[in-house]
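Marked as duplicate of an earlier ticket. Keeping the data here for the record.
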Amino acid sequence: MSNLPLPVVNQELFDSVAKWFCEIPHSATLGFKFVSGERGLATMMLDYKPELIGNPKTGVVHGGVITSLIDTTSGLSVFSRLESPEAIATLDLRIDYLRSATPGLPIYCRAECYRFSRQIAFTRATAYQDDGKDPIAYSVGTFMRDSSKATIK
């Protein structure tokens, strides 16, 4: 059995959603960038910017910025498994913040859509900087799907 990554289910859909997720005003203002995607997985990042600092004394990025990155990347991981466009919405997003992000370094998020049903998609994600083994935060999330168009892959 091969351990090669599987391609996203609908590359055209995934690419358009990844682009759109980076261009919507909220994401564009924060500076989200698409990094990679494969079936069930998505990675996004943002560069360190002074306007994202939550505490001016420490220079640490605000936790809400990391929450947004995790939510967006988790949603994108759901789209990596869709055959056709459908609406999704975050139902629940639980985040464990493990440490502060190191000022000056970019922040990455890798999210996995690990279970996929007709109505709900389940995700888990890790926010990190240099090393995914030293995470900033872990999360689990659930996303509602538009079940009128649901196709499971």
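See parent ticket for discussion. The CA atoms of residues 36 and 43 lie 5 Å apart.
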